[in-house]
Amino acid sequence: MERLLHYCWKHKIFPLGELRTSDGHLVEVIDPGLHNRNSGPDFFNAKVKVNGTLWVGNVEIHQKSSDWYLHGHHRDAAYDNVVLHVVAAIDRDVQTSAGNFLPQLQIEVPQKVQDHYQELLSADNYPPCYRIIPSLTRLTVHSWMSALQTERLEQKTEAIRRRVELCDGSWESGYFMTLARNFGFGVNGDAFEMWARHIPLSSVGHHRDDLFQIEAFFMGQAGLLELPMIPERYHRDALNEGYFTKLRNEYQYLAHKFSLQPMDGNQWRFLRLRPQNFPHIRISQLATLYYERRASLSQLVECTTVEELNNIFETHVTPYWETHYTFGSTSCMTEKYLSPFSKNLVMINTAIPMLFAYGRHLMKESLCDRAFDLLEQLKAENNYIVRMWRQCGLEVNSAGDSQALIQLKKEYCDKKDCLRCRIGYEYLKR
């Protein structure tokens, strides 16, 4: 309930009638202040008139007055500049560490706000506030979508920074790790990121002109050149074809030369995966991308149009994988090239966040602006989250929209964090 009090104070949702302190002084809220989510008073730099006198300072909010003492604020000088104590129930007077008595304002959360909040928390359907979405103004929707889009890019920027740190500050390696992760397309994302950490690019660079050696390097480090990683029914075919043996022999030479240690191949997931998403296929496409020198950060930074982005992610499998999806298993491949759908996802989840993160790193606003511009030009994703929001009446015209709505569901709806959501705010104040 205290969170609802915070919410009502922040948005000035008070019951009709005069507001008065516990000792009868009239209160007028000029500015509720800046909401503080860290240690210290709940709202900074609030402006309130008490009995006609303007006070500028901090506001602390509790369920009961006695919580002031329960939380130890009476011994903390950081709370001496509180000018008003806002509570749902006054059960005692409160003093600061300097011995000053604080004016206290008792407010109630309006019953309708309480009811709407409980509806939001208990609803099983997503989004629980769907009924008011058609009535939202265009400005409300647009401003919230823009904020969510930025929030999602900031979140991805932090993930990229962590990868760069793992790569000893190398943005080139951090980019390769991010690209690899997104070639896992969700199911194998973690495994691909682990695989990328096992790829010393400086060593691979010595053999960059030989696609076969690059593929041996990549497949070997993925732990896929071990016979137990091949289904037993394909052992004989894999050995008879010879390609598996040639790759394994080449990898053993490279492993000895560079003291390589492969990852555990059991990290890869195959259950319910379409064959074109098998790690063998995606790794072969990444090997081609690396061989053709289209997996470098410098090339990405030079892209200014969606067409140029499309070109650098244009890749295909090596000849063996045109007719196989694991060693020894023959199949008519349906995705020799990275499909337009897959390429769109790679651009959304790799290229755009990388441009934004690198722009922040270099303090080049032009790169950050380019990331937003390209995101607005890319096609929207078509997944169950996007389809759900479309059914609720929201327009989804670009990847910028779909990324914003994915952020909304994952960071607000799924976490029931309706009090920080602008749609939740509109729902509560109906």
Span between N and C termini?
19 Å
Biggest sheet record: 7 strands, mixed
Gyration radius from CA atoms, angstroms: 29 Å
Mean pLDDT: 92
Low-confidence stretches: none
- How many individual helices? 18
The structure class reads alpha+beta
Order of helices and strands: HEEEEEHEEHHHHHHHHHHHEEHHHHH
Report strand %.
5-15%
Number of strands: 9
Helix percent reads 40-55%
Could you say which overall geometry the principal axes of the C-alpha atoms support? Answer: elongated
Summarize the structure.
With 430 residues, the protein is an alpha+beta fold. It contains 18 helices and 9 strands. The mean pLDDT is 92.
Can you give keywords for this protein?
430 residues, two-stranded antiparallel sheet, 11% strand, 9 strands, 18 helices, alpha+beta
